[in-house]
Structures are given as structure tokens and as C-alpha cells.
Design goal:
Layout (H helix, E strand, L loop, with lengths): L2 E2 L2 E2 L10 H9 L7 H8 L7 E3 H8 L3 H9 L16 E3 H9 L1 H24 L3 E5 L5 E5 L14
Antiparallel strand pairs: 1-2, 3-4, 5-6
Length: about 160
């Protein structure tokens, strides 16, 4: 091996497993990760110091949509104090520690399950049907959520 300016000459890693590629994934939090990108993250020798929502979801094996709920439930904490609409970043050390904590995983799984159970029951209870008057005088049935406010009160349209 040749040594140049105090460093060993390392072979260049290209493709989805290269450190530069992992860094570029971390710099764009608006995109979801593909299966190849998820594997690249999981196979990375040294993870970045902070990860975004998509990467935290991969490391914890939750869905990206579940991370938002874990934040609001207080089971997961973002770095700094980001605004509600700002990208969220997490400490990789904290995420890996949570991934190894069986009690936390149990709490998080139960919280997510109860969240979806409540949301589904709310949707079922709100699915009452109301008649929407049509222009020709007849009416059709639709869910109450799709009726614009005040529209059902109008007659004869």
C-alpha cells in the first residue's frame, strides 16, 4: 500500500454503498428511501452522526409515517428544537440505543397500534351517510365528510 500525505490509499467505493452516496441521502430529507438505499444504510460501516426521518424509520424498522406519531407521543425526540414544519434529525446513537431497548420498542409498537385503532374507529363512526341534492331534484348518498359545509342546507340546486 502506498501512503500519501499521511493516509493510506484506499480503494474507491462507488454506487449505493459509497460514503458519498450515504451523505447525499442524508442531505435530502424530502425523498423516501428505496430498498437499495435502505440496505446501503443498514450495511454502512460507520453511520452518520445524525439521521433524518426516513433513515430513523429504517434503523427502527417503523414506517416513516409512524415516526411523526412517535414524535408527537413523546417517545422519540428530534435534535434541537425544530419548527413543526421543519425537517427533523435524530442522533444516531439515540436511535440505535432505542432499537436495542425492548421495553421502548414494546411501548412504541403499542402506541402506534392504538393510534391506528383509534383513527380507524373514528373513520368508521364518521362514515354516516348524508343525502346530497343534485341539480335535477334527485339526491345521491355520500359520506358526511364529503358534504361541503352549508351545501346540504341549500335546497333546489
Amino acid at each position: 500500500m502506498q501512503i500519501r500525505s499521511g493516509q493510506m490509499n484506499r480503494p474507491q467505493i462507488r454506487g449505493p454503498f459509497s460514503p458519498a452516496y450515504i451523505e447525499s441521502m442524508a442531505s435530502d430529507p424530502s425523498t423516501s428511501l428505496t430498498a437499495t438505499e435502505k440496505m446501503a444504510l443498514l450495511n454502512c460501516r460507520r453511520l452518520p452522526a445524525r439521521v433524518d426521518v426516513a433513515q430513523a424509520a429504517v434503523l427502527l424498522n417503523f414506517g416513516e409515517h409512524d415516526i411523526r406519531f412517535l414524535l408527537s407521543a413523546g417517545l422519540l425526540h428530534a435534535l434541537g428544537k425544530p419548527a413543526p414544519n421543519a425537517p427533523k434529525y435524530f442522533s444516531t446513537l439515540d436511535i440505535l440505543a432505542l432499537a436495542e431497548n425492548r421495553d421502548w420498542l414494546d411501548k412504541a409498537t403499542k402506541a402506534i397500534s392504538s393510534h391506528w385503532r383509534e383513527k380507524n374507529s373514528r373513520l368508521k363512526s364518521e362514515s354516516g351517510r348524508a343525502a346530497i341534492p343534485l341539480r335535477n331534484g334527485s339526491s345521491r348518498r355520500a359520506s358526511a365528510r364529503t358534504v361541503p359545509a352549508g351545501y346540504a342546507a341549500q335546497e333546489g340546486h
